[in-house]
Design goal:
The protein has about 80 residues and is of the alpha+beta class. It has helices spanning about 50-55, 70-84, and strands at about 5, 25, 30-35, 60. It has a single domain (about 5-84), classed as Alpha-Beta Plaits. It contains two helices and four strands, in the order βββαβα. The strands form two sheets. Strands 1-4 form a two-stranded antiparallel sheet. GO terms for molecular function: 4 iron, 4 sulfur cluster binding; metal ion binding. This is Putative 4Fe-4S ferredoxin.
C-alpha cells in the first residue's frame, strides 16, 4: 500500500526530506507521494517516516487505491535500490 497525502496538508516541508525513496514532491497545491516509489519505508524503517514527522494527525494515510502486501512493498524496495 502506498501512502497518500490528504488535502489537510499544510506544506510544512517536514515529510519530503525524510522520504528514503524520494517519493514525496510538491504537487500543484500540496505535497504528493509517487505510489511507484513509496514502500511505506519497508526496507528502511519500521514505520513510515513521513507519518512520524507530519504535524497534522491523519494527514498521510494508506492509499485505498494502492493496496500492496508487505512482500510486494519489499520487492519494490529491492527494485528501487537497484536503480539507485
Amino acid at each position: 500500500m502506498a501512502l497518500l497525502i490528504q488535502k489537510t496538508c499544510i506544506n510544512c516541508d517536514m515529510c519530503e526530506p525524510e522520504c528514503p525513496n524520494s517519493a514525496i514532491s510538491m504537487g500543484d497545491s500540496i505535497y504528493e507521494i509517487d505510489p511507484d516509489l513509496c514502500t511505506e519505508c519497508k526496507g528502511h524503517y519500521d514505520t513510515p517516516t513521513c507519518q512520524s514527522v507530519c504535524p497534522i494527525t491523519k494527514c498521510i494515510i494508506t492509499d485505498p487505491q494502492r493496496v500492496e502486501t508487505e512482500d510486494e512493498l519489499l520487492e519494490k524496495f529491492v527494485i528501487i535500490q537497484g536503480m539507485a
